[in-house]
């Protein structure tokens, strides 16, 4: 079955809109970490909790973070 180009583009745009927003966490060591969704700040622990691109829940200390920006 053949699809026309406008239909394919519309389907791709719809699928892209369904994904969550990604954030880039830059660290003092120079690493750039991609997080799916906005990282949550845990005030008691002084750390950010986030999900990586594979869906794993990870933590990074606030003191190691230089900047968090939306992609």
Largest sheet descriptor: 5 strands, antiparallel
Quickly count the helices.
Answer: 1
Structural class: alpha+beta
Q: Tell me the helix content.
A: 10-25%
Strand order of the largest sheet: 4-3-2-1-5
Sum up the overall morphology in one term.
globular
Oligomer: single chain
Q: What is Rg?
A: 17 Å
How many individual β-strands?
Answer: 5
Give the H and E element order: HEEEEE
Distance between the termini: 35 Å
Q: Per DSSP, what share of the residues sits in E-state strands of 2 or more residues?
A: over 45%
Uncertain runs? none
Instruction: Report the average pLDDT across residues.
Output: 85
Draw up the topology in text.
Elements: H1 5-18, E1 22-27, E2 32-42, E3 47-51, E4 57-61, E5 65-70
Account of the protein in words:
The chain is an alpha+beta fold and 71 residues long. It is 20% helix and 46% strand. It is built from one helix and five strands, in the order H-E-E-E-E-E. A hairpin with a 5-residue loop joins strand 3 and strand 4 (57-61). It is globular, with a radius of gyration of 17 Å.
């Amino acid at each position: 079955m053949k699809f026309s180009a406008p239909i394919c583009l519309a389907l791709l745009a719809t699928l892209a809109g369904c994904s969550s927003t990604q954030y880039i966490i830059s660290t003092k060591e120079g690493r750039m970490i991609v997080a799916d969704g906005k990282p949550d700040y845990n005030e008691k622990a002084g750390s950010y909790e986030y999900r990586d691109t594979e869906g794993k829940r990870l933590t990074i200390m606030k003191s190691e973070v230089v900047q968090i920006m939306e992609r």
